[in-house]
From TrEMBL:
Name assigned to this protein: CRAL-TRIO domain-containing protein
Coiled coil feature spans: none
Organism of origin: Glycine max (Soybean)
Record InterPro entries: CRAL-TRIO_dom, CRAL-TRIO_dom_sf, PI_Transfer_CRAL-TRIO
Pfam families the UniProt entry points to: CRAL_TRIO
Superkingdom in the source lineage: Eukaryota
Length: 223
């Protein structure tokens, strides 16, 4: 797995993806990194598959990779390295189905970002999703799908035991039953991503100029 991941990074260069490359896919708030952590200090991603994307599957995957790289960049040395995925199924229907994107996402996460997923909360999935989930599970390793929890807002016990246990309800978006009615702010999010891009680029350029080929040599030494 390590050799394959190193080869993928050297060829795909995920660290080179910039905000301007993926900004269009981010506009509607279909996927974004929340501005709060869960109660264990883990980065939280909000995913809203019910919002249709006009982008190609490749563009959607590219944006996902950009978000993962950005999240990893922002993890401090004493912070929990795993992430929480909050998936809101409002508006989701079979028209949103894309087994290819699900398969590609699972492959990338499990092969190149192993153990990054700490918890996935499926919030209010419709009944029809159960059949889709049956098709998706074979693409996932058991240790991955065991981290998935289904939450139904019409079940107070389910909501209380999961959402309130893991998240600050004052900061959580209203579409997850929280008190935050502001939700996703594209302009503020774009500004933050551009600032992170600049910081990452400065560090990367500094390392490359002081130690040419440092990435390649380090990767090969670790194999």
């Amino acid at each position: 797995m390590l050799k394959g991941s190193i080869k993928w990074r050297l060829e795909f260069k995920p660290e080179k993806i910039q905000w301007d490359d993926v900004a269009q896919e981010a506009e509607r708030g279909r996927l974004y990194k929340a501005d709060y952590m869960d109660k264990q200090g883990r980065i939280v991603f909000v995913i809203r598959p019910g919002i249709q994307s006009a982008s190609s599957s490749c563009a959607q995957i590219k944006y996902l990779i950009y978000c993962l790289e950005n999240a990893i960049w922002n993890i401090s040395s004493n912070q929990e390295e795993q992430m929480v995925w909050l998936i809101d199924f409002q508006g989701w229907s079979t028209a949103c189905l894309s087994l290819k994107i699900v398969r590609d996402t699972a492959q990338i996460l499990q092969a190149h970002y192993p153990e990054r997923l700490g918890l996935a909360i499926f919030y209010n999935p419709p009944k029809v999703f159960e059949s889709f989930w049956t098709m998706v599970k074979p693409f996932l390793e058991p240790k991955t799908y065991k981290k998935v929890i289904f939450v139904y807002p019409d079940n107070p016990r389910s909501r209380r035991m999961v959402m309130e246990e893991h998240l600050d309800m004052d900061k959580l978006e209203s579409y997850f039953g929280g008190k935050n009615t502001v939700g996703f702010n594209y302009e503020a999010y774009a500004q933050k991503m551009k600032e992170d891009d600049k910081s990452m680029s400065d560090v990367f350029d500094s390392c490359c100029s002081s130690s040419p080929g440092f990435l390649s040599s380090e990767f090969h030494e670790s194999v």
